[in-house]
Design brief:
Layout (H helix, E strand, L loop, with lengths): L10 H18 L14 H4 L5 H4 L7 H19 L4 H25 L8 E2 L2 H14 L12 H20 L12 H21 L7 H6 L10 E2 L1
Parallel strand pairs: 1-2
Helix pairs in contact: 1-4, 4-6, 5-6, 5-8, 6-8, 7-8
């Protein structure tokens, strides 16, 4: 009998999930705990937004924050990664992840243009993977359309819970930080929309609506938003 693989997931999301705690470990070794690499919304108007808009998604507010995002990346990355085979596909997967994260960060920044509180975290990018996975899972090898009932219902629940969690403002293990729920929402919507043209570009066929319906040691981080 063939031996079952211990981890039945493409290499790209495995490496992505592993990189999140590794990057946080490196962050803890920096003199300021990575604060200088965080994103501040006010920089969108004063011109200092780069490179924080990108580097902020490699930072986290604590081990719990980093491990939660790593777990989510490992859970929702494989359905998206399987769509993009080979080395070129892995590059597309990482580009998709980064673009979702950038959109999430910029979306948060646009809603807090005068904000000086730093934002960190890969949650916008991770929820982008979730958005893509929602349209791929249960589609029988196809892609659920945006108007599919399960996509609409699941998205409403996810965005609603995200809003409630953000307003409550509780981050497990990072109680001193807020939750950038806006980054989560923008990242999720970006993933939900971007997976469509990428799926088409890689030769996929959309699932029929009726088919989709049937298958169903760090310095303490005080103050910055945990995205």
């Amino acid at each position: 009998m063939a031996r079952e693989k211990l981890i039945n997931a493409p290499l790209a999301p495995v490496l992505l999930a592993a990189s999140i705690p590794v990057l946080y470990l490196l962050q803890t070794l920096t003199p300021d705990g990575g604060l200088s690499l965080a994103f501040r919304p006010a920089t969108l108007t004063d011109g200092g937004w780069w490179p924080g808009v990108l580097t902020s998604m490699g930072l986290h507010a604590g081990w719990t924050h980093a491990l939660i995002n790593a777990a989510f990346a490992f859970a929702f990355g494989p359905p998206v990664a399987r769509l993009f085979p080979g080395l070129r596909g892995a590059s597309v997967f990482f580009a998709y992840y980064i673009v979702c994260g950038l959109i999430g960060t910029l979306g948060f920044g646009l809603m807090h243009l005068d904000g000086e509180t730093p934002m960190v975290g890969a949650s916008g990018a991770v929820t982008g993977l979730l958005g893509g996975a929602i349209r791929l899972l249960g589609a029988g090898g196809g892609l659920k359309p945006l108007r599919d009932r399960s996509v609409l219902t699941t998205s409403a629940v996810i965005l609603g819970l995200n809003l409630v969690t953000g307003l409550v403002g509780y981050t497990p293990g990072v109680e001193s930080a807020g939750i950038a729920w806006e980054a989560h929402a923008f990242g999720y919507i970006a993933g939900l929309l971007l997976i469509g043209p990428l799926f088409k570009a890689f030769g996929g066929a959309p699932a029929r609506p009726e088919q989709a319906d049937d298958e169903d040691g760090a310095p303490p981080w005080t103050g910055p938003w945990a995205g």
